[in-house]
Specification:
By secondary structure, this protein is of the alpha+beta class. The protein is built from 22 helices and 30 strands.
Length: about 725
């Protein structure tokens, strides 16, 4: 990642976490696949023809409207859940229940800087880990909204494991025993000051700091607490000038790499990296010249060392062996280590570690899911044992909906699609106060707070905007309900070049974008898919999510191909792909489409040129910035000229003549206020800070789904 874009990422995500804590976790308005218990439900399933978001920032008013059936779902602060849960609404009731058994992906943690004394001593970090009152923090500070977590990869994510890790729980006796053993070697804790820092105004972190100060002082250290303004706090943590800091993490996309690289990565870069699976113990020396790390995981033993030959392996042999060999780029690595920047040149854990870095980096390029999982687990297990990051807890799911709502589900990193949710035909009917609209079984009404940044996927980088995009835009790939694996949406298949530096998407045919402002449609092709990603990077809007594309894809070196061209590449060079946990080598377009089980029309191929092998790139296309917009709508009268200048998308850099940089660009001014639709709904009307009305898209490519679920045909 480039320094500027990654630093921006860190600040944006940390800022989101601060907002999350300040408003006391106001995000619990999604739902779950489990149906709320109700009375008898008829077999008819009304289709949600429209979605109405009503903005009511006063909580008392919002709750009263919820209780009278105006809302099907409403934002309710966790402190009020006990008052609202089970409220009768006609013959139904409101269902607001916390689900510790269904964790989400947000985590809270304590960062110990191993570059500062006395935290450079592993035993000191372990003692502090045992002296941390985790359960008290979870109960008193987070109000039961978090469940205990022991590793950097949370439950629900590939690579999560409790195998071979240290499960730190509060145990003051054990902590004092560790310090006593250090004292016997001449260590004197009274000579050290440990300073806990947090951002001022954050009462939750202030409470955590006070609890840690009280507990850690019992080990003989002088423990102080300091708070700083947010910019100063970021500056301290960015440059590892802190001793102990308190922060949280909300992943940008659902892949373990969005935890490994920001936190675990040891700052090393490599000239060469390779892995081999199922290596006989006697053959380890065929791939490694030395063994620098051996980690046993759930199903494999992972052996890491310098690439070469001659290593003597004497470790365990009770499981299949994976070798990871590396050649270090010492110039870049030493530069990263000299003045490290948090999440940019070194992970938050602060461990300058070559073998650990190799695990993080090689995990980015492994297609075989079982092998990748083992390598990630190896990094997680080793990182856990270093105790530089003490994980406090993982956010849990909160179910919040009227009991007349069915099939609600709770994705880990996306949002519920309301065309997949239905209501009892006898659901309460109430006036909403917006355009004479009633909340009836064919209308999903959500009582919300705040407002989207814009309606442009190239700019919005917050949950409200991304939820709207989830309803109105299609993406090349998506996820189904609570599943976490990417599946085709506006693409029908994908494949990588064998060196994993080219990513090809075969684009679905017969897809139309709907422009409700002019009642027009536009055909969607591979050109639109490339233009959408290219445009986000080109605009480079302040605070936007474009780094997620630009960090991994050279959009100007990407291009549009024909199906025949992809077929020729597959036949001459071969391609590799993975889907539904399986990977394969592909040698023709027909073979690729068959692997994905697709028979139907296509509309070109988009080739994304990766800056380096990066298998998690698929998850980025699932996010809001992956939304596909019609190039013709965005450029208007300039569309044909732009298409010709780019040679139908073969030279996307030519589009720079038609799309500018920043918020003065005409395409941004258009899409930020007048979004179009390639998804199940479109924005029909809105009034800022008042309401957003979505209606079903009559040109949606997958209306067959609605016929199957509801018997509804537009």
């Amino acid at each position: 990642m480039s320094e500027n874009k990654t630093a921006k990422k860190a600040r944006l995500v940390l800022a989101i976490v601060v907002a999350f804590l300040v408003v006391a976790s106001l995000i619990f308005y999604l739902s779950t696949q489990k149906q709320a218990p109700t009375g008898a439900v008829t077999t008819a399933k009304p289709f949600h023809k429209q979605i109405l978001y009503i903005i009511v920032n006063d909580e008392g008013t919002r709750i009263n409207m919820y209780k009278t059936g105006v809302f099907d779902i409403a934002v309710v602060t966790p402190a009020r859940w006990p008052d609202v849960n089970n409220t009768k609404v006609g013959s139904f009731y409101l269902h607001l229940v916390r689900r510790p058994d269904k964790p989400q992906l947000t985590i809270q943690y304590i960062g110990l800087n191993p570059m500062k004394e006395p935290l450079n001593i592993p035993e000191v970090r372990q003692a502090l880990a045992y002296a941390t009152p985790y359960d008290v923090i979870l109960k008193q500070v987070f109000g039961g909204l978090y469940t205990r977590l022991y590793t950097i990869i949370p439950k629900g994510m590939l690579g999560y494991t409790e195998f071979g890790i240290n499960k730190y729980e509060y145990d003051m006796n054990k902590a004092q025993q560790i310090i006593s053993s250090l004292k016997a070697k001449g260590f004197d804790p009274s000579k050290y000051v440990i300073t806990i820092t947090y951002n001022e105004g954050n009462t939750a972190r202030q409470q955590i700091a006070t609890l840690l100060q009280q507990s850690w002082s019992q080990l003989g250290f002088k423990v102080t607490v300091e708070s700083y303004s947010w910019p100063k706090y970021l500056d301290l943590t960015d440059h590892f000038e802190h001793q102990v800091m308190l922060l949280g993490w909300i992943p940008d996309y659902m892949d373990p790499d969005d935890y490994l690289m920001p936190f675990v990565w040891g700052g090393a870069e490599f000239k060469d990296l390779e892995y081999h699976a199922n290596v006989p113990p006697a053959n380890v020396g065929n791939y490694l010249s030395s063994v620098n790390m051996t980690i046993e995981t759930e199903k494999y033993i992972v052996v890491v060392g310098e690439k070469g030959t001659g290593a003597k392996y004497t470790g365990p042999t009770n499981k299949p062996i994976i070798t990871v060999g590396y050649v270090v780029d010492w110039d870049t690595t030493n530069s990263n280590w000299q003045n490290p920047v948090n999440m940019v040149t070194l992970g938050t854990g602060g461990l300058k570690d070559v073998a650990l870095s190799a695990l993080c980096k090689v995990a980015q390029r492994i297609l075989e899911e079982n092998v990748r999982e083992a390598v990630i687990q190896a990094a997680v297990i080793y990182f856990n044992r270093q105790s530089t990051l003490l994980i406090i807890g993982q956010q849990i799911t909160g179910e919040n909906y009227g009991s007349w709502v069915h099939d609600m589900y709770y994705p880990l990193a996306t949002f519920a699609r309301y065309d997949l949710v239905w209501e009892d035909p006898n659901a309460p009917v109430a006036d909403t106060g917006v355009q004479n609209i009633q909340n009836n079984p064919e209308t999903m009404v959500i009582g919300d707070i705040g407002w989207p940044d814009t309606f442009d996927p190239a700019k919005s980088y917050e949950s409200f905007g991304w939820e709207i995009f989830w309803q109105v835009y299609g993406k090349l790939v998506t996820t189904w309900k609570e599943d976490t694996e990417p599946i085709p949406e506006l693409s029908v298949a994908w494949a990588f070049s064998k060196d994993l530096t080219d990513l090809y998407f075969v684009v679905r045919g017969n897809v139309k974008a709907y422009d409700p402002w002019n009642n027009k449609t536009y055909p969607i092709s591979a050109v639109d898919a490339l233009f959408s990603a290219w445009r986000a990077v080109r605009l480079n809007l302040p605070g936007g999510p474009q780094w997620m594309i630009d960090s991994y894809i050279d959009v100007n070196a990407s291009s549009v191909l024909t199906e025949n061209e992809l077929d020729s590449i597959a036949k001459s060079q071969g391609l590799v792909t993975m889907y539904k946990g399986k990977s394969a080598e592909i040698h023709s377009l027909n073979e690729l489409l068959s692997f994905f089980g697709y028979k139907g029309p296509t509309s070109g191929v988009v080739k994304f040129k990766l800056r380096a092998p990066y298998v998690p790139i698929l998850q980025i296309f699932v996010t809001g910035v992956g939304s596909v917009i019609p190039m013709q709508y965005a450029l208007g009268n300039q569309y044909q000229a732009a298409l010709a200048d780019s040679n139908n998308g073969r030279n996307p850099s030519a589009w720079a003549k038609y799309v500018g940089v920043g918020e003065n660009d005409a395409t941004f001014k258009l899409l930020s206020t007048k979004p179009v639709s390639t998804g199940p709904y479109y924005v029909a009307d809105y009034k800022e800070d008042s309401y957003i009305l979505l209606k079903y898209n009559p040109y949606y490519w997958n209306t067959t789904l609605w016929q199957q679920l509801y018997g509804f045909k537009p």
